[in-house]
Design brief:
With 289 residues, the protein is an alpha+beta fold. It contains 8 helices and 6 strands, in the order αβββββαβαααααα. The chain folds into 2 domains: 4-139, Beta Polymerase, domain 2; 141-280, Nucleotidyltransferases  domain 2 (Four Helix Bundle (Hemerythrin (Met), subunit A), Up-down Bundle). The relative contact order is 0.10.
Length: 289
């Protein structure tokens, strides 16, 4: 596996040899001094060029970056649709384990990219980038919730939970799991991020999808979160749903107390009672109540 030094030397030598590339910026975890370091970290690189168009069609030049295992070009895909920001992206996984997410962006966009706090200027041929503060994850720290955001999170969590119960009673596992993961867990994670913010003074980044939560949550709270992950067994999925409810209630009341928000205890009580009722409903029930 090529070393970080070898990778950066290759990335920069490519840029220096190509007059069309005027600047190079690295962002992402390798630009974040607070991110754990390991060999899985991507190289998130942006080449700023005068004209993006030539880079969209000649894919042969990618070979200079290494032997490709697989490549993806999001701007050339229909699903998901591209963001159409004028740039082009090559996501490259190499056979030696390294990965480069390479953006080719118009030079006019340079100030948008370097505004990200996780930005390190690797090359600036024209001196067009102003001096940047040291790279950090300050733009990725959790923000305190507004009263409206807190209420909306609570409302969505308790509103969607009965959908999971419906899917479990019907034994529609794909539906139940999708509602759980896409909606219930999404709101639970929002609340956990605010909880971490409260306990750390909003000074720690939980990482993408909460990947650092194990290091940031209290051991007992982390243990509760683990119980929200289950296999495909229906009863254990029910257990996971109730574990999510318990954890949401615990952290939401703590966040509410910290900011003086009103926690919708009535919604919680009514929905929780409904979930317990549905779980006990016989499979041949003709009426819900």
């Amino acid at each position: 596996m090529r070393t970080e030094r070898e990778m950066l030397d290759m990335i920069l030598s490519t840029a220096r040899a190509d007059d069309r590339i005027r600047a190079v910026v690295m962002n992402g975890s390798r630009a974040n001094p607070n991110a754990p370091r390991d060999f899985f970290q991507d190289y998130d690189i942006v080449y700023f060029v005068m004209d993006v168009e030539p880079y969209k069609h000649n894919h042969e030049w990618l070979k200079r970056f290494g032997e490709l295992m697989i490549v993806q070009m999001p701007e050339d895909m229909e699903d998901p649709p591209p963001n159409r920001n004028g740039g082009f992206v090559y996501l490259m996984q190499f056979t030696d384990g390294n990965r480069i997410d390479l953006g080719i962006d118009p030079l006019a966009m340079i100030h948008e990219i370097v505004a990200d706090s996780q930005s390190i200027v690797l090359l600036d041929k024209d001196g067009c980038i102003p001096a940047l503060p040291p790279a950090s994850d300050r733009d990725y720290l959790p923000k305190p919730p507004t009263a409206k955001a807190f209420w909306d999170c609570c409302n969505e969590f308790w509103w969607v939970s009965p959908y999971v119960a419906k899917g479990l009673w019907r034994r529609e596992l794909p539906y139940a799991r999708q509602m759980f993961e896409e909606h219930v867990r999404s709101e639970l994670m929002r609340m956990l991020i605010w909880h971490v913010g409260v306990t750390t003074g909003f000074s720690r980044n939980v990482g993408k999808f909460g990947k650092y939560l194990e290091q940031l949550l209290e051991p007992e709270v982390w243990a509760m979160l683990q119980k929200t992950y289950s296999d495909t067994d229906y009863e254990r999925t029910w257990d996971a749903l109730f574990a999510a409810c318990d954890l949401f209630r615990l952290t939401a009341t703590r966040v509410a107390s910290r900011f003086g928000f009103a926690y919708p205890a009535g919604d919680d009580a009514r929905v929780s009672a409904h979930l317990r009722h549905v779980r006990k409903l016989p499979r041949d029930a003709k009426e819900m109540y």
